[in-house]
Automatic annotation (TrEMBL):
Pfam families: adh_short_C2. GO terms for molecular function: oxidoreductase activity, acting on CH-OH group of donors. Keywords: Oxidoreductase. This is Short-chain dehydrogenase. InterPro entries: NAD(P)-bd_dom_sf, SDR_fam. Belongs to the short-chain dehydrogenases/reductases (SDR) family. The keyword Oxidoreductase applies. Signal peptide: none annotated.
């Protein structure tokens, strides 16, 4: 099954999603949405990260069974993206299982709270390795599977970002670098028919918020409420649809107006 981009070139309805370790996370919501839209999926995750940072094991196997129940092919590809050998292996494994990939959606991150004065070199380097280097290597490997030329099937790449930096310094700083490298892909990879976008969803409660944080976040949103994983998934599925194919090289704020000053 295929869908078409703005130039009526069919793209494979297959996708590699990273950072899909927990069923209540953004990656899982995107996986559900794309499976409903007919995508076969390779899901990348790190159980060690979920245990270390989220305090709970990955439950991606249960997610995979739910998605297979929708009639989709689902491949699980665990791995530590801090290892520079891992990104090309993930793409190769996904291609072997599903065939040519039509989309890459990067939801993975290293995110450990720390500030200018207490961030360690080890932590900063790991944030850079996962959030920036791995994203570049994934993008490069995804692009290498698509030959240049007018008959290329092309592809779509989406990365999730954030503008939170204070007291979350290495995370925010490396997300800024992520934005630049992904958006460059729309121009550098145009001959391969690849379009790239970055989505900033604002604060999304995936289990890390307490009542005080939820209340404060909702108060900074004009609608008086926070978005959920499904609000992110809605935008991603639009960007990967024929109707979203003309949106390219953009950093999109999909945050309900969070902390946006009145004009």
């Amino acid at each position: 099954m295929t869908f078409e981009n703005a130039d009526a070139t069919p793209l494979p309805r297959t996708a590699l999603l990273t950072g899909v370790g927990r069923r209540r996370g953004i990656g899982a919501a995107i996986a559900h949405a794309l499976a409903e839209d007919g995508f076969d999926l390779a899901l990348s995750y790190s159980d060690a990260y979920d245990r270390r940072v989220n305090g709970e094991p990955s439950d991606v196997e249960e997610l995979a069974e739910e998605l297979r129940g929708l009639g989709r092919r689902i491949e699980l590809v665990p791995g530590d993206l801090a290892d520079p050998a891992e990104p090309p292996c993930l793409v190769a494994t996904a291609r072997e299982a599903l065939g040519a990939l039509g989309a890459l959606v990067m939801c993975h991150c290293e995110s450990v709270d720390s500030s200018i004065l207490d961030t360690t070199v080890e932590s900063f380097d790991r944030h850079y390795a996962v959030n920036v280097r791995a994203s570049w290597l994934l993008l490069r490997s995804f692009a290498e599977q698509v030959p240049p030329g007018t008959d290329t099937p092309g592809g779509a790449v989406i990365a999730l970002t954030s503008d939170h930096t204070a007291h979350n310094l290495p995370y925010g700083a490396t997300k800024g670098a992520l934005d630049r490298l992904v958006l460059a892909g729309t121009h550098e990879l145009a001959d391969r028919g690849i379009r790239t976008n970055v989505v900033n969803p604002g604060p999304i409660d995936t289990g890390w918020m307490d009542d005080a944080v939820r209340k404060a976040g909702a108060a900074q949103t004009p609608g008086g409420r926070l978005g959920g994983p499904g609000t992110v998934a809605d935008l991603v599925r639009f960007l990967l649809s024929p109707r979203g194919a003309w949106i390219r090289g953009q950093l999109l704020l999909s945050n309900g107006g969070f902390a946006t000053p009145a004009v």
